[in-house]
Amino acid sequence: MLWSDIGDSLRRVALGFGFATVVGVPVGLALGWYPAMNQVVNPVLQVLRPISPIAWIPIAIIFFGVGDRAAIFLIFLAAFFPIVVACISGVSSVPAIFRRAGRNFGLSPVHILSKVIFPAALPQILIGLRLALGVSWLVVVAAEMIAVDSGLGYLVIDSRNSGKRYDLVVGAMLIIGLIGLALDTGIRRLEKIRSVRWGFRHGS
After folding, report:
1. Which spans are transmembrane here (predicted)?
2. How many distinct structural domains can be found in the chain?
3. pTM for the full model?
């Protein structure tokens, strides 16, 4: 049962964080690339971003019911905003000379963004992904205590409520911490790749 709970928690994080990355990176790159669009969208981001994902639990349950979809939605929200903000900041911080050089070589705007701007902004984007992954792991535990009936978060609350098995509570907490450390270590290794660290991707 423990391995099943671990697998359920990791699966929910993988789906929620994965969706947030697939959606958030292009959105952040587009907003960073088009400042006028960013000025329009930024107020909405700044209103929604400070809202804790935990505050969305009642709404998630109303729309998705009690189950995986509610937890995955909460994880998506938790990861989406840090990823978007990191992408916007990464693109905005790339020196303008990079864009001019791309234009001088005849690159289209799409190629400049994908082959020049994105590699240069990648170190900062990875920092945002790392923060988003950490928040996602925190949120899945909280969501599982309320919105689902499996996972490490559910194990913690269920062990406390049924029989006051505080040994299981502490054990689950330790596992949560160790998995969080492993996830952080894994994404830190990506940051240490030389082509990423220098904001440059080899090849075409």
Report:
1. 12-35, 47-66, 73-98, 136-157, 169-187
2. 1
3. 0.84
Q: At what angle do helices 152-161 and 2-33 cross, to 10 degrees?
A: 130
Contacts of residue 13, Cβ cutoff 8 Å, sequence gap at least 6: 75, 133, 136, 137, 140
Max Cα-Cα span within the chain: 71
Domain span at residue 149 reads: 2-197
Question: Could you report the per-residue pLDDT of 74-105, keeping only the tens digit for each?
Answer: 999 999 999 999 999 999 888 888 878 888 88
CATH code for the domain in which residue 127 is found: 1.10.3720.10
How far apart (Å, rounded) are the C-alpha atoms in residues 111 and 14?
Answer: 29
Cβ–Cβ under 8 Å, residues 142 and 55: no
Amino acid at 163: G
Cα dihedral 23, 26, 28, 30 sign? negative
